[in-house]
Amino acid sequence: MKWFNSAVVYQIYPIGYCGVPRKNPFQPAPSCGEGKILRVVDHIPELKKQGFNTVLFNPLFESSAHGYDTVDFTKVDTRLGSKEDFQKVCEALHENGIRIILDAVFNHVGRDFTQFKDVRDNKYNSQYKDWFHIRDGNSNYNDGFYYEGWEGHFDLVKLNLFNPVVRSHLFQAVSSWVADYDIDGLRLDVAYALDPNFLRELSAYCSGLKNEFWLMGETLHGDYNTWMNPEMLDSVTNYECYKGLYSSFNDLNMYEIAYSLGNRQFGPGGLYQGKHLYCFVDNHDVGRIASVLTDQRHINGIYTLLLTMPGIPGIYYGSEYGLTGDKRDGDDTLRPEFIIGDYKETELTKLITKLTKAHAALKPLCIGDYRQVVLHNQYFAFARSCDGETVYSLINAGGNTQGFYLGGSGRYKDVLSGEYFDVSGNVNVPAYGAMVLYDADKFDIEMTKNAAEPAYEKPEKTAEPITAPPPQEPDPELIKLVKTTYDYIKKIADKLDIPLE
Q1: H or E element: which one contains 258?
Q2: Percent helix, strand and coil across the chain, each rounded to 5?
Q3: How far apart are CA 393 and CA 150, in angstroms?
Q4: Residue partners of 297: CB distance under 8 A and separation at least 6
Q5: 3-class secondary-structure state, position 63
Q6: SS3 per-residue string spanning 175-217
Q7: Which of 248, 296, 311, 366 is most open to solvent, judged by the fewest CB atoms within 10 Å of its CB?
Q8: Percentage of the chain surpassing pLDDT 70?
Q9: Residue 261 exposure: Cα atoms within 13 Å on the Cβ side
């Protein structure tokens, strides 16, 4: 089983987590050992205790503001610290058995990106003009030329991923991240907007950098197999079930999430059987689940569902302590400063800890199939099976005790309460309660043990590491021919108002 199939992810948005200015003053980084990113090292004991074995860092390379407006792919954001500071963080995480995923923002960069600043200064004479989608006209910033921004956001300059020099630049950045920080994978921002051929090349390139290097892409709707396939990405964000998770509880309509999980995604004939989507109840772009749920008594049920349904579960920093944040109040509300010493263990963190450790320890929850067992508006049960072993997940969103007939056999233990139940008869779940039942005679979940500890073994590099080739200067005559052809095609495209992509 590949390591990421048993991953339990803790997501950190560094600029918020570290409490740094939201606009970059572009001052020198603090002295080595003083960067705020080192706060993560203090957090590691709790991450281990709570059963997380993977950390996903949202953008932490030099940017103008929020991280997605990159200035330099190779420089740790000076607001967060130095390269050496982040290396200490990565070394500490790996020493404690925790894998590292970085957010790769390859669709667009900021207006302060070095190469784009050269275009702003030199316009059509810039050697980097073909790094971007430049046209005649003007921009919202009165640059004297028009360029494409991501979804109309002109502070986010769209990269020309059809340019082999641009691809080489990005691949070299990934290579440096593996060399400098020994990362284990990437989250690809707005993967749905990336050129499929670019994703194929990136996947092939990363497979040569490190064994079992995980590529997960941000996608929203549609058929996720478009991006999640053997040639491109290992996983994608499961926004379909994100919506189904919270609205099923808010509307007391468990049919919604059951339809997505069973009919569409993982049941017989489902689109994603045997695949592992990245699942979540909140993140840096959407409201905190404690603010989204209309009834806080459903918090235990939604986390039980998240951590037992098919997929790779992710928890957004602070939500394990019940942090709130309403998307309508702006993104900064969702991305607060977080100092682990300010928080004490709660009933919610205890519940999540039991679930994370069960997820990592019970193979059916990692790679098992999916079978619906009981379904009603206010309650829901399903089974996950693998190698002849079964785990049952029972969710009662209603205000009364509910009996579940599972039709199994034997005496199973509940992960959450520690009690035993006969799954051949009715199992009563209290109001707003949940259970995760497993055969304790065949599985041994040590809830006091740090589940992350044995999860990371430094993999060997492939025998022949692939390095991005240095950009080659083509023959001058070839340049002239390509330019003449391009100019001719561009005139036709402009006349027909067709973007050259």
Answers
A1: helix 255-258
A2: 35, 20, 45
A3: 41
A4: 431, 432
A5: strand
A6: HHHHHHHCCCEEEECCHHHCCHHHHHHHHHHHHCCCCCCEEEE
A7: 296
A8: 88
A9: 27
> Which residues, 6 or more positions from 457, have their beta carbon under 8 angstroms from its beta carbon?
none
Q: Nearest-CA neighbor of 206 among 5, 465, 469?
A: 465
Token digits of residue 441:
């005679």
Burial 286-296 (b: 16+ CB within 10 A, else e): bbbbbbbbeee
Note whether 452 and 51 are within 8 A (CB). yes
Cβ neighbourhood burial of 124 (10 Å; 0-12, 13-18, 19+) = exposed
25: which 2 tokens? Answer: 């003053």
pLDDT, greater one: 104 or 448: 104
3-state secondary structure (DSSP) of residue 437: strand
Question: Can you tell me the distance from the alpha carbon of 248 to that of 273, in angstroms, rounded to the nearest whole number?
Answer: 22
pLDDT of 314: 98
The position carrying tokens 């950390």 is 55
Cβ atoms of 375 and 255 closer than 8 Å: yes
Q: How far apart are CA 141 and CA 263, in angstroms?
A: 48
Of how many residues is the chain composed? 501
Distance CA 132, CA 115 (A): 9
CB atoms near residue 202 (< 10 Å): 24
305 token code pair: 């569902």
What's the CA gap between 232 and 236, in Å, rounded?
A: 11
Residue 455 has pLDDT above 50, yes or no: no
| pLDDT number for residue 485 | 54
Tokens of 275: 């695949």
Residue 146 sits at φ, ψ, to 5 deg, of: -100, 145
DSSP class per residue in 36-60: GGGHHHHHHHHHHHTT--EEEE---
Whole-angstrom Cα distance, residue 70 to residue 62? 6
Rounded to the nearest 5 degrees, what angle is found at the Cα of 204, between the Cα atoms of 314 and 90? 45
**CA 475 to mean position of chain CA atoms:** 42
CB contact at 8 A, 274 and 300:
no
Q: How far is CA 257 from the centre of its chain?
A: 21
Residue type, 85: D
What are residue 11's DSSP bridge partners? 56, 316
Sign of CA dihedral 106, 107, 110, 112: positive
Tens of pLDDT, residue by residue over 168-212, are 999 999 999 999 999 999 999 999 999 999 999 999 999 999 999
Query: Could you count the other beta carbons within 10 Å of the beta carbon of residue 458?
Result: 9
Q: What 3-state class would DSSP assign to 90?
A: helix
Report yes or no on whether pTM surpasses 0.85: yes
| Model pLDDT, residue 497 | 60
* Residue-wise burial string across 50-66, b where 16 or more C-beta atoms lie within 10 A, e elsewhere: bbbbbbbbbbbbbbbeb
Of the candidates 57, 75, 58, the residue with the CA atom closest to the CA atom of residue 67: 58
Of 234, 243, 195, the residue nearest 212 (C-alpha): 234
